[in-house]
Every structure is written in C-alpha cells, then in structure tokens.
C-alpha cells in the first residue's frame, strides 16, 4: 500500500468529529495530511484537527497567536509527563522537535519551523483552535492507528477544555502589549526599548540552536536594569500597566562595551530578538525593537556596481570601477561598508554591529589604513560628518576606544550588569592616554636612534 492509500485508509477509520475533514483536499496533500516512514521503523501520521471552546471568541484578535502558543505549550508540558504519547513519539530523542518547548511567537526568520508552534497551521479562529497533529506510531495497521487517533483526539479535547481561560487571556494580552509597543516606537522617537528586568541570556538545545528561538537561560540569568544616569523611560502598555527601561533613540549611536564574556553579544542578540513576540517567562517579553533593522557583519562578496563611496575614497588594485560603482571581489571591510551604506540608503531605522563579527579597520581610524587604503572609518564619519549617519547604531565593542568616545551614550557590562559609562569623562581620560602613548612612542623612537625612513610617509603623506 502506497503512502497516499495508507493515509486514506487511516482517515476512513477515524470516527472522532474533531478531524478537520474539510481540509483534506488535494491542494493540502503533503502539507496538512500525509504519512512518512521514520528511520527507526515507525510511521509519522500528520492530520489537521479542530477543537472548540466557546470562550475563545472573547480573546483579543490581535493576540491570538499567544493564546494558541500557550495551548500548545500546555499540551507539551503534559507530553513531558507521559501523556498524549503519540504526539511525542514516547519522548524519543529523535522526536524531540515534537515536544521541545518554544517561547517565541511571530519570528520572521525561517528557523524553528520544524517545531510545533503557532503558525498558519496552528491558530485560533473564532471559537475554534486548529492544530496540526504530528503523531508517531509503531504499528502500521490503519484500523489500529485510526482507533488510537480517536482516543488521542478525545483526550486532547477534554484537556483543552480544562486549560485555564485566565492563562489564555494573560498570554493573549501579553502579545497585544508587545505588538502595541512596537507599533508606538516611532511616536516615542525610539528604535528599541529594553524593559527593566528583561533576561536576554539563552539556553540552547540540539533543536534550538539559534538565539532567536532559544529558551531562557537555566540557573543564574542576570536581569537588565537601566542605569539611572541614562534616565529610564516610562512606557504605558496596552493593558494600562507602566514599565520602565532603556530607550534607544532614533539616529542615536549607542555603545555597549565591557570586558570579554560579560554579555555584550547576548544583549545585542536580545535587542535583535526584540523583533519577535515572546510568551510569558521567555525573559525578552519587553525587549521591543523595530522590525526595520539591519545587522551588519563582514565577509567578502562579489560586487556589481555597488556604492561604497561613503567609506572608500579609492579602490585597491584588482577591483574595477569607482567607489560609487565597484565591480569585483570585495574585501571584508568593503562588504561591510556596502552593507552599512545600503541599509542607510534604504532608510533602515537601526543598524546593529558586533565588533567580533566586523572589519575593525572600517570602524576605527588607523594611520596605516589611511596610508594604504584611503578608508574613511565609521568613527571618522561620526566625528566629522555625523549628518550622513541617518540610522541609529547599536554597537558592541571591548577595545574600540575611539568609536566608544564618539558615541552619544554608552553602557559597560560588569558581572553581566549594565553600568553607566560617562562619555565626557571617558573622552578626557582617552585624550590623556593618547598623549601619554605619544610620549612613549617618541621615547622608544629616541632610544632606538631612529626616525621615519620608509617610503610610506613620503609617498602617501605629501
């Protein structure tokens, strides 16, 4: 019996009215219903079901994904206790994507699509919740499978009826709060908001390897608290509650600095994850970021008429065209220059940059890069042509002092806690440091009895 005949025989043997037979059309074949053999000899059966609860119609339509996701997560919790075993493959390791918890809703990336989650196949519509059930069976007898599906469907119906309505309403309003605040960022003159007591640190699993879908860190997870010197912003949520946090302003250059392993990248990833909505308990519920965002990294690419003229005054040998229309294989710094320039041309609200994944010579000015490449760094543009930076920038760094000194505001992370960095004081100290460094360099040159003898000065500084 082929798989198409097999699934039809299974459907014939399902008597429970929750099976959504109206969806079993040829256009939905292999999407909403199918059978597939598994590597361990078992069979996966996928079918659409509809369960009814009259009180679902009282939920806010703008937060239904939250209520849907909470129902699914409640079912998963029961699965972890050994209930609804066909849905978890009896908690087999190879089937963990079926029961893996997920606290992310409305992620715009194509990640975690293999996990059971609120999506176009799992949703609330009126008084009905549509659930696409993926079930694992050892037997291959359609009658036996049909009977077990009937039992499972009835158990699910009874359990869904018992889920607390107040829990579904809380999750519903939680999602509405996040959507509403994200929609109001523009009127608040912000591109991002980091709510106080947010917990951006993540725990990863074999099926949740990306920070956007990873779960809350287990154990110690230091909450973010806005340093009082940065004047925490108060925002009112849709449900009337008022929360405080750090507001990142439009066109602001905001630096996150500190030593290694203090959580700089984690916080930046949390800000990027603010594009998504999160269930209660995720820790990132009130990290809210505009979706008009660009995360800029290095890497090389082939350019065909790309504009990097904001940063490059000339092109090195091997590339054709001009800085306004580059043709050829670009270096990491050129690629990054192009991506930043393109993002601003496209009107992106905020650009995220992590020093660890960047071309440092594009971020800070250097004598050698000026001699050899004619590169105008981001820090130089910040200093002399700030009006050309039309997007906000959030940048993490541990060593780029000049870039930090030119920022509008900054924090440093110490023991994973956010501390205020007084940039006026920092600039004064950095100036003293540079002067002392200059004296030391001259002393070293004098001790060695040398001066400038190379051709770089003569050929490039004239």
Characterise this structure.
Pfam families: ABC_ATPase. InterPro entries: ABC_ATPase_C, ABC_ATPase_put, P-loop_NTPase. Residues 168-433 form the ATPase of the ABC class C-terminal domain. With 462 residues, this protein is an alpha+beta fold. The chain has a domain at 3-171. The chain contains 14 helices and 21 strands. It has helices at 3-12, 64-80, 85-88, 96-99, 142-162, 165-184, 264-273, 332-345, 360-363, 367-372, 378-384, 401-405, 423-448, 455-460, and strands at 34-37, 43-52, 104-105, 123-125, 128-137, 190-195, 202-203, 215-216, 233-236, 242-249, 253-258, 277-278, 287-289, 293-296, 301-306, 320-322, 325-330, 350-354, 392-397, 409-414, 417-420. Strands 14-18-19-11-20-21 form a six-stranded mixed beta sheet, with helices on both faces. Strands 1-2-5-4 form a four-stranded antiparallel beta sheet. Strand 4 (123-125) and strand 5 form a beta hairpin. Helix 1 packs across helix 5 (142-162) and helix 2 crosses helix 6. The model is unreliable at 453-462 (pLDDT under 50).
Question: What does the secondary structure layout of this molecule look like, with pairings?
Answer:
Elements: H1 3-12, E1 34-37, E2 43-52, H2 64-80, H3 85-88, H4 96-99, E3 104-105, E4 123-125, E5 128-137, H5 142-162, H6 165-184, E6 190-195, E7 202-203, E8 215-216, E9 233-236, E10 242-249, E11 253-258, H7 264-273, E12 277-278, E13 287-289, E14 293-296, E15 301-306, E16 320-322, E17 325-330, H8 332-345, E18 350-354, H9 360-363, H10 367-372, H11 378-384, E19 392-397, H12 401-405, E20 409-414, E21 417-420, H13 423-448, H14 455-460
């Amino acid at each position: 019996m082929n798989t198409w005949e097999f699934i039809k025989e299974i459907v014939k043997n399902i008597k429970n009215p929750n099976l959504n037979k109206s969806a079993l059309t040829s256009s939905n074949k292999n999407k909403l219903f199918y059978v597939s053999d598994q590597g361990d000899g078992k069979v996966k059966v996928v079918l659409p079901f509809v369960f009814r609860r009259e009180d679902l119609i009282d939920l806010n339509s703008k937060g239904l994904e939250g209520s849907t996701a909470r129902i699914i997560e409640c079912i998963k919790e029961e699965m972890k206790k050994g209930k609804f075993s066909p849905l978890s493959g009896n908690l087999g390791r190879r089937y963990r994507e079926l029961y893996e918890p997920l606290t992310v809703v409305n992620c715009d990336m194509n990640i975690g699509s293999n996990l059971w989650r609120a999506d176009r196949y799992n949703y609330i519509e009126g008084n009905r919740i549509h659930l696409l059930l993926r079930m694992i069976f050892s037997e291959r007898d359609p009658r036996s499978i049909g009977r077990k599906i009937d039992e499972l469907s009835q158990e699910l119906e009874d359990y869904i009826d018992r889920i607390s309505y107040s829990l579904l309403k809380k999750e519903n309003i939680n999602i509405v709060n996040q959507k509403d605040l994200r929609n109001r960022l523009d009127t608040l003159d912000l591109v991002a908001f980091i709510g106080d007591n947010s917990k951006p640190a993540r725990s990863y699993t074999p099926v949740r390897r990306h920070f956007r879908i990873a779960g809350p860190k287990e154990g110690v997870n230091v909450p973010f608290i806005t340093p009082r010197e940065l004047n925490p912003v108060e925002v009112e949520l849709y449900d009337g509650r008022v929360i405080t946090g750090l507001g990142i302003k439009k066109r602001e250059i905001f630096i996150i600095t500190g030593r290694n392993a203090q959580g700089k990248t984690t916080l930046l990833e949390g800000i990027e994850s603010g594009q998504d909505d999160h269930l209660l308990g995720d820790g990132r519920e009130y990290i809210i970021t505009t979706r008009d965002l660009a995360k800029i990294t290095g890497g090389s690419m082939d350019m065909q008429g790309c504009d990097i003229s904001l940063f490059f005054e000339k092109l090195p040998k091997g590339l054709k065209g001009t800085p306004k229309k580059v043709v050829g294989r670009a270096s990491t710094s050129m690629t990054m220059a192009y991506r930043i320039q393109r993002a601003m041309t496209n009107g992106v609200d905020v650009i995220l940059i992590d020093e660890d994944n960047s071309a440092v010579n594009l971020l800070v000015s250097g004598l050698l890069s000026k001699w050899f490449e004619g590169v105008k760094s981001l820090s130089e543009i910040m200093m002399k042509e700030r009006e050309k930076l039309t997007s906000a920038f959030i940048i993490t760094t541990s060593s780029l002092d000049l870039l930090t000194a030119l920022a509008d505001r900054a924090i440093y992370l110490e023991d994973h806690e956010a501390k205020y960095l007084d940039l006026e004081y920092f600039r004064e100290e950095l100036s003293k440091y540079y002067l002392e460094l200059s004296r030391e360099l001259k002393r070293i040159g004098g001790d060695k009895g040398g001066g400038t003898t190379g051709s770089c000065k003569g050929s490039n500084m004239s």
